[in-house]
Predict the 3D structure of the following.
Amino acid sequence: MLVSISGRHVEVTPDVRDYAEKKMAKMPRYYDRIQAIEVILDHESENFSVEVVVSADGAPIVAREVGPDTFALIDLVSDKLERQLTKHKERFRNRKHISPRPHKEPS
């Protein structure tokens, strides 16, 4: 799994990079088919934004948060991704097990 961390209009400090890598390294616990994770830090006026794009089999999974503290934003984004990946995994597992439709008895 490849983790890339980049910054738009902001320099990514080693502390933030290490923290984001540590948090993103836990994502395969929730879905094991992750191929790459891209973390994008951006500075918008007074706030920062953290966007994470997870490339797995199928459509990319995206989580985004805006706020003043990058470490707190990384925590919030990782929580969002945990929920999204768990939900995606359940859908992936259960897609062949569609709930049975009520059958009408022949009259």
Remarks:
- The chain has one domain: 2-94.
- Strands lie at 2-8, 36-44, 47-55, 61-67.
- The longest helix spans residues 70-94.
- DSSP finds two helices and four strands in the chain.
